[in-house]
Specification:
By secondary structure, the chain is mostly beta strands. The chain has 2 domains: about 5-55, no CATH class; about 65-184, Jelly Rolls, CATH 2.60.120.760. It has one helix spanning about 5-15, and strands at about 25, 30-35, 40-45, 55, 65-70, 75, 80-90, 95-110, 115-120, 125-130, 135-145, 155-160, 165-170, 175-184. Strands 5, 6, 8, 11, 13 and 14 form a 6-stranded antiparallel β-sheet that branches. A hairpin with a 3-residue loop joins strand 1 (about 25) and strand 2. The two termini are about 50 Å apart.
């Protein structure tokens, strides 16, 4: 059977089944019309339905984003971790996984290395890393996915330097900030 004959036969067999814009052809024991759903509904597989499909509400994800930004200059000469004051986030809900991002704008007068991390408590690092400062300033970014956070938990940002004075937010070009993105 040629393609034009096939299309002609198909059109004749479907004639009268699909009657309205958006109708979908389904099959249980015969070809059957599934009427178009309502606005914003999606077609979903459902083995309990006669045709095996149905229109339903979208089960889309909810995305929640938070950002906290360090305002002003933060300086330290500490070789032990210290809290960066003025930059914390509190987790409002924990129904999904979190993407935690950290960016920092820094200079180190001693041209040493520094570490900057996001902590979920006093000892558990969840994002961040070590930064080598071969020159006087650098803009760096870190990210990770984390799912072990609790409702109301506060994320802290801590840093330390190997030598010299570490300055965060030393100019107006870039800023140090922490961001979370939750998908649930």
């Amino acid at each position: 059977m040629g393609s034009s004959n096939f299309l002609s036969a198909l059109t004749k067999s479907l004639s009268g089944i699909l009657t309205t814009k958006g109708d979908v052809l389904g099959y249980g024991t015969t070809e059957t019309r599934l009427a178009v759903g309502s606005n914003n509904q999606v077609l979903t597989a459902d083995s309990t339905e006669a045709l095996g499909i149905k229109w339903g509400s979208s089960g889309g994800a909810t995305v929640t984003r938070q950002t906290a930004q360090l305002s002003g200059l933060f300086s330290t000469t500490s070789t032990s971790f210290v809290n960066i004051t003025g930059i914390t986030l509190t987790i409002p809900d924990n129904t999904g996984s979190f993407f935690v991002g950290l960016t920092s704008d820094s200079e180190n007068t001693g041209n040493g290395n520094y570490n900057i991390y996001v902590f979920k408590d006093a000892s558990t690092q969840i994002a961040g890393g070590a930064v080598n400062l071969p020159s006087s300033n650098i803009h760096s970014g870190f990210s990770s996915t984390y799912s072990g956070l609790n409702d109301g938990q506060t994320l802290l940002v801590q840093t330390r330097t190997t030598s010299g004075t570490l300055n965060l937010n030393h100019d107006a070009t870039n800023t140090t900030r922490i961001s979370t993105l939750e998908v649930s």
